[in-house]
Specification:
The complex is a heterodimer of chains A (221) and B (581). Chain A has 221 residues and is mainly α. Chain A folds into 2 domains: 45 residues, no CATH class; 174 residues, Four Helix Bundle (Hemerythrin (Met), subunit A), CATH 1.20.120. In chain A, 38% of the residues are buried. Chain B is mostly helical. Chain B has one domain: Cytochrome c oxidase-like, subunit I domain (Cytochrome C Oxidase, Chain A, Up-down Bundle). In chain B, helix 3 runs parallel beside helix 5. Classes of the chains: A mainly alpha (221), B mainly alpha (581). Chains A and B meet through helix 1, helix 2 and helix 5 of A and helix 5, helix 6, helix 7 and helix 8 of B.
């Protein structure tokens, strides 16, 4: 469970560090009167959706780290036979990196309120992501054709489960992406588009990071 | 000046126009909280009836044809899982969390009301799926609430086909529901507090709920991972957890899986789960004791940091549930040490509750009775936890009734007493009526004394070596006849205590319609939920302006003040003479 404990230590450590900064030297029993929003311990002045997303990323980090911990523990048993990762995974990795790059470009354009540029970059990012999903299915098909079935070895089982869970997260992201595209089509206010694009970008960067970790794990074991 | 807090920015509350919109598909956090409470209570009653079945078998073995070994194990399993996950977790976080967090923080609603509503409906779906397992072929799983493989999914265990799949699917749904709710509680508490409501002015109820939510958000994925793998092992034939095994004389196709891996994942969720139930109880009981003793909570900062410390430590004690699993003995030493360390912040909280009571103006009304009752049962359950945390003591006591007695005292009875105390305390806020006092006191004394009649003898028979999860003890050399006499006595006490809970439900229903009208803020409490413009509060909670918080939530019996409490909303000059401190 080392991988999980490290991730949780980072998350809990961040929470505790933030709490210490908010609560140190505060004597609530001795203070009266309203205290301004930006006083230590006041509410956070970032959008609720962003806090919600960061909290969700913590949940997802915990989920993936637990899968990785389980992977390491199960690997120690004698029946583990590593599979040969299909080469299409390299192409898929490049596709996901490109989608992340275009999300970043969309975000930069959103900050400058260049809505048409946001739209183009967002659509390209979405296309690369769809291509990534298709590529992952291609990888599954390749493994299946080569006789690497889900149940024939725990290494295979983990490969299918890890890639499936990651793809499910991507599909969830694509749903939010489609809502964002819809917002642009409907000419929603720019600041709302900006928030949506920023959230998508953070989420895609996170899923890219998760994929890079998973891919490195699969390649190295 | 009208103040627009962050809570108001960009949040447009959808005021419902129809009855269905207001009470069924509601996005109002209070209604969603009540929906959670009603559903959790309903499923809790199912679990209570299952415990009657178990006790009848143990008290009077073989007297009831209805209760055969399979049914007994199914009752044990469903009682445990329903009570821990679908009842207590849902009640504290879905129920109290929904009702209290926005009100106590001075927000109009949760940060994401639609997702909050969705959280309840997915929770309800999970409850329906778990209850559906009573009606599938062979009935629900009888694997024990820990669902250990391989026996959970191999033939010979009750519900090894449909039952276990219903259970894993319902748990997966529950995790999804909890995550949607949990993201709301955390975001609301961190971002949507009203002006002046700094972190260190938050009531401890909110602190407890938020810390438990953070634990849940990080720990429930472990349950999700384990049930996903278990479902794949069962349905598609993978071998994550199932080793090469022969079942009923036939070799199964599984090979090489690790049951210990499941135990690690399960308890990585399972132990924080204890605190997911306990931390909200700690927070709520702190507020009950302070309010009804008319005294500020002793050591507020310590209480906050004890919650944080317990939360952090709860992630590194999980393997104390696995001392007899055959793991490396050095791990046992490590986990025994961390288990004993977690007793320190826990003890700080107990001392502070007692010191808050010390020389307080104690009002022995029903919520206070339950709060004090909690301190008793929690101390007893906690101390036996110290026994079991030590490897050398745990090994002989493992899987005996000593363990059953311990965990029922510490995470069964204790949180339930807080649930009851909380309901008696906040019922007037939600309904505008008081619960019947006499029925409440009868309910308390029957529950409090009755639980001791149930669980103290369990410790005794556990030390004698009576194993848990046995359908019948039969005749054994090492068990004296007094064990059976104790079992009869426990069963009678359990039936009486169980029946007393129906008195509570009658009180609830009767009081909603016929209860004495409650005056505004009947307990003369300081926290924001009692200071709303409408009483009971309507959708949106506050009037045109959000409240402004001027002080912490524990200004009771302040020297020089005109009254023995100063609400958080009161400006410094109105009710105080000079400094508060």
């Amino acid at each position: 469970m080392t991988a999980t404990l490290i991730i949780l230590a980072v998350i809990m450590g961040s929470v505790v560090f933030w709490l210490i900064r908010q609560t140190i030297n505060v004597q609530p029993w001795a203070e009266e009167g309203p205290i301004g929003q930006h006083h230590a311990g006041g509410p956070l002045s970032i959008p609720a959706v962003k806090i919600g997303l960061v909290a969700f990323l913590a949940v997802a980090s915990s989920l993936f780290s637990l899968f990785i911990s389980a992977y390491f523990q199960r690997m120690d048993y004698g029946d583990w036979t590593p599979l040969i990762e299909p080469s299409v995974l390299w192409v898929n990795t490049v596709l996901l990196i490109l989608s992340s790059v275009f999300f970043q470009r969309a975000r930069n354009a959103a900050i400058k309120s260049q809505v048409s540029k946001v739209k183009v970059n967002l659509l390209i990012a979405g296309l690369f992501t769809f291509a990534f999903i298709v590529g992952q299915l291609w990888a599954w098909q390749g493994l299946y054709d080569a006789g690497y079935f889900l149940t024939s070895n725990p290494a295979n089982s983990f490969f299918y489960v890890l890639t499936a869970i990651h793809a499910l997260h991507i599909l969830g992201g694509l749903w939010v992406w489609s809502k964002t595209v819809f917002k642009i089509q409907n000419k929603t206010e720019v600041h709302k588009i900006r928030v949506s694009v920023e959230l998508c970008t953070i989420y895609w960067h996170f899923l890219l990071l998760v994929w890079l970790v998973l891919f490195a794990l699969l390649l190295s074991t | 000046m009208a103040h627009v807090a962050l809570a108001d920015e960009g949040q447009h509350l959808a005021h419902p126009k129809t009855w269905i919109g207001a009470y069924v598909w509601s996005q109002d956090h209070k209604i969603i909280g009540i929906q959670y409470i009603l559903t959790a209570t309903a499923v809790g009653v199912v679990a209570l009836v299952l415990s009657f079945m178990m006790r009848l078998q143990l008290g009077f073995p073989g007297a009831f044809d209805l209760i055969q070994p399979s049914e007994y194990y199914q009752a044990v399993t469903m009682h445990g899982m329903i009570m821990i996950v679908f009842m207590l977790t849902a009640f504290f976080l879905g129920g109290f969390g929904n009702i209290l967090v926005p009100l106590m923080c001075g927000a109009r609603d949760m940060a994401f009301p639609f997702m909050n509503m969705l959280s309840y409906w997915v929770y309800l779906l999970s409850v329906i799926v778990v209850c559906a397992s009573f009606f599938v072929p062979e009935g629900p799983t009888g694997a024990g609430w820990t669902l250990y493989p391989p026996q959970a999914i191999t033939e010979g265990t009750a519900g090894a086909d449909w039952g276990i799949v219903c259970m894993t699917v319902s748990l997966g749904l529950f995790v999804v529901a909890f995550t949607m709710g949990g993201l709301n509680y955390v975001t609301t508490a961190f971002q949507a507090r009203t002006r002046g409501m700094t972190l260190m002015r938050m009531p401890l109820s909110v602190w407890g709920i938020i810390m438990a939510t953070i634990l849940g958000l990080l720990a429930f994925p472990a349950l999700l991972v384990s049930v996903i793998m278990m479902t794949l092992d069962k349905t598609l034939g993978t071998s994550f957890f199932i080793p090469a095994i022969s079942s009923l004389g036939e070799n199964l196709s599984h090979d090489g899986g690790s049951p210990i891996l499941f135990q690690h994942l399960f308890w990585f969720f399972g132990h924080p789960e204890v605190y997911i139930v306990a931390l909200p109880a700690f927070g709520i009981v702190s507020d009950l004791i302070s309010t009804h003793a008319r005294k500020n909570i002793f050591g507020y900062r310590m209480m906050v940091w004890a919650l944080v410390a317990i939360g952090g430590l709860s992630f590194i004690v999980w393997a104390h549930h696995m001392y007899v699993s055959g793991m490396n003995p050095y791990f046992g030493f490590f986990f025994a040490t961390t288990t004993l360390i977690i007793a320190v912040p826990t003890a700080i909280k107990v001392y502070n509750w007692v010191l808050t009571l010390w020389q307080g103006n104690i009002h022995l009304n029903v919520p206070m009775l339950f709060a004090i009752g909690f301190v008793f049962t929690f101390i007893h359950g906690g101390i036996t936890g110290l026994f079991l945390g030590n490897v050398v003591v745990d090994v002989p006591l493992s899987d005996t009734y000593f363990v059953v007695g311990h965990f029922h005292m510490v995470m069964g009875v204790s949180p339930f007493l807080v649930v009851f105390g909380g309901i008696y305390h906040w019922f007037p806020l939600l309904t505008g009526r008081m619960l019947n006092d006499t029925m409440g006191k009868i309910h308390f004394w029957m529950t409090f004394l009755g639980t001791y009649a149930i669980y103290l003898p369990m410790h005794y028979i556990g030390i004698l070596g009576v194993p848990r999860r046995y359908y019948a003890n039969g005749s054994t050399e090492f068990l004296p006849d007094s064990v059976q006499a104790a079992n009869v006595s426990i069963t009678i006490a359990a039936l009486i205590v169980g029946t007393a809970q129906f008195l509570f439900i009658i009180n609830l229903v009767w009081s909603i319609f016929k209860g004495k009208k409650s005056e505004r803020n009947p307990w003369r409490a300081t926290s924001l939920e009692w200071q709303t413009e409408d009483y009971p509060p309507k959708h949106g909670n506050w009037g045109p302006e959000l409240p402004v918080c001027h002080r912490w939530a524990y200004s009771y019996s302040v020297p020089g003040a005109i009254e023995d409490f100063i609400p958080q909303t009161e400006e410094p000059s109105e009710n105080t003479k000079g400094d508060v401190h």
